[in-house]
Amino acid sequence: MSERTEHAGREERLYWLHQLERWARPVLTRLAEGRLRTEMPVESSGEGREAYTHLEAFGRLLDGIAPWLGAEGGSAEEQRLRTELLGLTHQALEQASDPASPDALNFGEGHQPIVDTAFLCQAFLRAPHVLWDPLTDEQKQRWLSTWKLTRTRKPFFNNWLLFSAVIETALARFGDRDWDPMRIDYALKQLEQWYAGDGVYGDGPAYHADYYNSFVIHPMLLDVLDHAGALQPDWEAHKGPALVRAQRYAEQLERMIAPDGSFPVVGRSISYRTGAFHLLAQLAWQRRLPEGLDAAQVRGALTAVMKRCFEPAGTYDAEGWLRIGLSGHQPELGEGYISTGSLYLCATVLLPLALPENDPFWQGEAEWTSKRIWSGGHGRIDHALGH
């Protein structure tokens, strides 16, 4: 491997770490100190998002950075950053769950907390040794009770079924005897009914052209099966097909990334920015990328997407908070349910940061599919599943 390609991996990892710190500090510092509600802006075209945006920011950010918080190694500077942010995370978790805290988060009122409790539970599942294990018995019981507050409202008949399933998976994983297998079973059976083919699930009975297969469906389906699949033989039987379908959709995602790092502006919630590549990042982190998809080319593609999404002027406000948009500040791209906290789903692109520096993901340099082909290079013909 040439010195230039080794240097590329190191430089891109530093860029990813810079993005992580830039997104994490505004949220974690303020929540750890009980200042999130008073100091976090709430940009939204919808009504009443102040009730939900703080849990959105914390749950979605932690979902993306939890594996890195639980990783080891890296440069001395990276290790210092990890130690600091993990300490802030532990303080933030206490503030978020303590009813007496000025920053006690809303888990029990309205439908939106079903969504972001699930993202927070997913974070716990992704790094239990640093998020769950250090808690006291009292803190653990408080969190289990907090997660169950979402049961008073039913999820909508679409990808939301997976939010309930992830919450129940976390309850089962962390020893709550009251976990409900039906909420997992219903989601798994219904998602199977909605499978449309070629790695794509319908978001409810109808197909929607958007990125929800990556925002939510594949990542949460895989995590439910990884953590709860062994609890029932028929759940375990879903694992193989679910992974094959996820790998196929990841191939499609990688091919959607243009040579300049842009990607199709299709469907709702486009202001989640790099959250559109949640699944691709997850499979890279778990070393489950499909055969023929090189880890280094995925790194290059995701780095290019990050630069397209976060370097334009106006992306952040003066205090460093994300603003609504895809390439800069574009408030018209935010649906009524989008607010400042929602935007931190972008952090799920950072999952591969948990891989060590010597992992193939951070080694070498490879052009992603569209960059290679549109520059006159050679690539594989794309085939649908089963062909």
From TrEMBL:
InterPro entries linked: Chondroitin_lyas, DUF2264_N, Terpenoid_cyclase/PrenylTrfase, UCP014753
Top-level lineage group: Bacteria
Domain DUF2264: 13-367
PANTHER family found in the cross-reference section: DUF2264 DOMAIN-CONTAINING PROTEIN (PTHR35339:SF3), LINALOOL DEHYDRATASE_ISOMERASE DOMAIN-CONTAINING PROTEIN (PTHR35339)
Name recorded for this polypeptide: DUF2264 domain-containing protein
Origin species: Paenibacillus rhizosphaerae
